[in-house]
Design goal:
Layout lengths: L2 H8 E3 L5 E3 L11 H11 L2 H7 L1 E4 L15 H10 L4 E4 L10 H18 L7 E4 L17 H7 L2 H17 L4 E2 L23 H17 L5 E5 L18 H17 L4 E4 L3 E2 L2 E2 L4 H11 L5 E3 L4 H7 L7 H11 L4 E2 L4 H13 L5 H17 L10 H4 L7 H11 L1 E5 L11 E5 L6 H5 L19 H8 L5 E4 L5 H9 L3 E7 L17 H13 L3 E6 L16 E6 L5 H9 L49 E10 L3 E10 L5 E10 L10 E11 L4 E9 L4 E2 L11 E2 L2 E7 L2 E7 L1
Parallel strand pairs: 3-4, 3-12, 4-5, 5-6, 7-8, 8-11, 14-15, 14-16, 16-17, 17-18
Antiparallel strand pairs: 1-2, 9-10, 13-18, 19-20, 20-23, 21-22, 21-26, 24-25, 26-27
Helix pairs in contact: 2-14, 3-14, 4-5, 6-16, 7-8, 7-16, 8-9, 11-12, 12-13, 16-21, 18-21
Length: 736
């Protein structure tokens, strides 16, 4: 090729005669992201920008409806090229046909190929999933404990490790936008999404939210903090009901987990489906713009929840028409509408609103620019496709990590007469509906939305785990709980009975439980076992605290809360029951005596009359050994309070303890919480071993926001003497 020919390939001549690079700035990875976004926006039509603000469900590309089929070329062309749709999602239970890692990779590659190679500007698509406890839409992927169980580990490093592995699996299959973690708090166990939270405390939850963000985004998968904000304390305890939050409560309780997630670098946020203080969050400029962006400094993408702009008309009734709802939501701060089916209506409506001046063009540039920014951050322009061979490695067993997460979550609630571990048992009877039902150990969001397909996930049931993990000389038998005669005969032949009870899988509103009870037949089973007179160990598979009739709760000699432990439930519980692992889980919520007490949290304002006490307090959990604390020193630094604590294992078994530091607010702390967790650390010790640890409590945990309505001021320290508590040990510090 001649020199002139080579120059012709490298340069283009404008009509003005000036020379410009042939490659657009937005395609140059050496350019700053902001410049790439600006360059690409300047080249886009209004319709192309609106497409980036739209997310459809994958079945639209298969059947143009809800049917799951192979992708259709004409639908890919219609929605990705002609409409310029910027992102696609799999709702719970939606995936390729067949549902294999190879098919996931081929599906996302096919979507990308059309977007990149046929789209006018070659803008890659972004694929979203709800991978909330593993790559849980993919048949065969390892399922980890749900967030409530992970919270019981009180171990951010472990949670980050789990999230990193999940991120690697998502990246390998081309699903780079994860609608997780839940940063809502679980402060009302009647709520059907309680198990999706990291518990009731903002410090514990925020620490684990931040760990999840770090883990996911280390694999170049976008984390989504959801559901901003106030979703976890609905009136009446039912999903998507209104929440009414005092300004101080919003600032001190509900915002910190989101703030910690943003500080960890979360790229996206999902809006709360409900309303806060009478205003639907999808229409709240105060929350989505003033608070989230103004106060908290968020720069990323805000996505709606499923079809929620429509709900401003039909459910919230704050908009007379769909056009009014779209204008309200986009102007409030929603950047992307998750509109599963009716994308054409949304795109046409939004275009008309822009042309009529009801939605400013600057707002469209802002929202579309944020989506482009996200895609650049994830490296999609440089690496839009995935390697199918890498995707097939997703199913490589992650048993050790899943088991460790389950082990550290299991919480010992009762252990009368040192029943556990089972060291003197020769014949062990296992029964109960949760002993053999994998769906009950997986919970919701397992293969499908409600978790009813969770049996397709790899897993070891409690019965299988005990049979495989029983020590030599221990016989493990099983009796169907529905066969009273066989159950009685098996119980008479056993030294001990392990009964597994729990909740059938559920998600969202279908999991609302206003009385906290199990099905009546499970209580009947426990009564029948009680009548047989054999010692009982109760294992609970549940996504919330539950209530038992007074005559039944202390019937078992020992009680283990297993939460929703996922694939390795059986192997983890076998290790705990047979004493190979010392349980170290601690409750991430307050367990009420009665559901009439809820909402009932440890940091509630002081009770006057009657004085309500929980069945088990927040942070509670027993061990097979004992620990003693000795407070050594406390000091105030410019940014924190530091407390030195010696922890000693005074028992005869190795074990781990969660050291929890609380503060009691000083007198005159009007409307201050009774106590607040300000620091924690997990420590592992051999018998007789002691270790000194330093707990650091940031001063903002001692701060109170002003009481002004809708105040956005930073929290202020309330001067005075604070009492710090570790176990039963207390020390006072003066803060000025």
């Amino acid at each position: 090729m001649t020199r002139i020919g080579r120059l012709a390939l490298a340069w283009a001549v404008c009509f003005s005669g000036s020379l410009v690079l042939a490659q657009p700035i937005y395609k140059d990875p050496a350019q700053p992201v902001e410049k790439r976004v600006a360059d690409l926006l300047a080249r886009m039509t209004l319709e192309e920008k609106l497409g980036q603000m739209t997310q459809i469900v994958v079945s639209k590309l298969m059947s143009d409806g809800w049917g799951l089929e192979p992708l259709k070329a004409e639908l890919l062309e219609r929605y990705l090229v002609q409409r310029g749709i910027g992102s696609v999602l799999s709702g719970g239970g939606m995936g390729p046909v067949p549902n294999t890692p190879r098919a996931w990779a081929e599906m996302t590659n096919a979507i990308q190929r059309v977007a990149v190679e046929k789209g006018r500007l070659g803008i890659p698509s972004l694929y979203g999933v709800d991978a909330v406890h593993g790559h849980n839409n993919l048949v065969g992927a390892t399922i980890y404990p749900h967030n409530l169980g992970l919270a019981a580990t009180w171990n951010p490093a472990l949670v980050e490790q789990v999230a990193r592995r999940v991120g690697q699996e998502l990246r390998a299959t081309g699903t780079l936008w994860n609608f997780a973690p839940v940063a809502d708090l679980g402060r009302d166990p009647r709520w059907g999404r309680f198990y999706e939270t990291f518990g009731e405390d903002s410090l514990l939850a925020g620490s684990l939210v931040a760990a999840t963000v770090r883990g996911l985004q280390a694999s170049q998968v976008a984390a989504t903090l959801k559901h901003f904000v106030g979703y976890g304390q609905p009136v009446g305890g039912t999903d998507r009901s209104p929440a009414f939050l005092a300004p101080r409560t919003l600032q001190e309780v509900w915002l910190p987990p989101f703030r910690m997630g943003l500080e960890a670098g979360a790229l996206t946020v999902m809006a709360n489906s409900g309303s806060v203080n009478g205003v639907p969050v999808h229409a709240s400029r105060y929350l989505l713009t003033d608070v989230l962006r103004g106060q908290m400094g968020f720069k990323g993408v805000v996505i709606s929840d499923w079809n929620d702009i429509d709900k401003l008309v039909n459910d919230h009734k704050v908009a007379a028409t769909f056009a009014d709802a779209v204008a309200l939501s986009i102007n409030a701060g929603v950047d992307v509408y998750m509109v599963p089916m009716e994308a054409d209506r949304y795109l046409q409506t939004l275009k008309e609103l822009v042309e009529a001046g009801r939605v400013p063009r600057a707002r469209i540039d802002e929202a579309a620019g944020r989506v482009l920014w996200l895609k650049f951050q994830l490296g999609l322009f440089e690496r839009p496709y995935v390697e199918v061979a890498e995707a097939e490695k997703v199913l490589e067993a992650q048993r050790l990590l899943a088991k460790q997460a389950a082990l550290e979550s299991i919480t010992l609630l009762e252990n009368a007469a040192f029943t556990l571990p089972l060291t003197n048992v020769r014949t062990l009877l296992v029964t109960g509906p949760a002993a053999t039902d994998k769906t009950m150990q997986m919970g919701g969001w397992s293969i499908d939305w409600q978790g009813k397909e969770g049996a397709k996930a790899p897993g070891i049931t409690l019965l299988e785990g005990l049979q495989k993990g029983a020590p030599k000389g221990v016989k493990v038998t099983y009796a169907d709980p529905r066969d009273a005669r066989a159950l009685a005969a098996a119980a008479r032949a056993a030294d001990m009975v392990v009964v597994a009870l729990g909740e059938k899988p559920y998600a969202e509103s279908e999991g609302n439980n206003l009385n906290g009870e199990l099905p009546a037949e499970q209580y009947r089973l426990l009564r029948d076992l009680k009548a047989l007179g054999k010692p009982i160990v109760l294992v609970l598979f549940a996504g919330r605290p539950l209530v038992f009739p007074p005559d039944l709760w202390l019937t078992p000699k020992a009680i283990l809360m297993a939460y929703l432990p996922g694939s390795e439930a059986g192997s983890a519980l076998a290790d705990v029951l047979f004493g190979r692992y010392n349980p170290s889980g601690r409750l991430p919520f307050t367990w009420p005596k009665l559901f009439s007490q809820v909402p009932f949290t440890y940091d509630r304002y002081p009770d006057i009359y009657p004085k309500a006490e929980p069945l088990y307090p927040f942070g509670y959990g027993l061990s097979y050994t004992d620990f003693a604390y000795r407070l050594q020193a406390a000091r105030v630094t410019p940014n924190a309070v530091e407390v030195d604590v010696e922890v000693r294992n005074t028992g005869k078994r190795a074990g781990s303890d969660v050291v929890q530091l609380y503060t009691r607010f000083p007198p005159l702390g009007f409307l201050a919480p009774r106590e607040r967790l300000v620091g924690f650390a997990k420590v592992s010790l051999e018998p007789g071993q002691a270790r000194s640890i330093k707990l650091t409590a940031p001063l903002d945990r001692f701060a109170l926001v002003p009481g002004d309505v809708f105040s956005l001021e930073a929290p202020r320290l309330l001067p005075g003497r604070y009492v710090l508590r570790v176990g039963e040990q207390t020390v006072a510090v003066d803060l000025r």
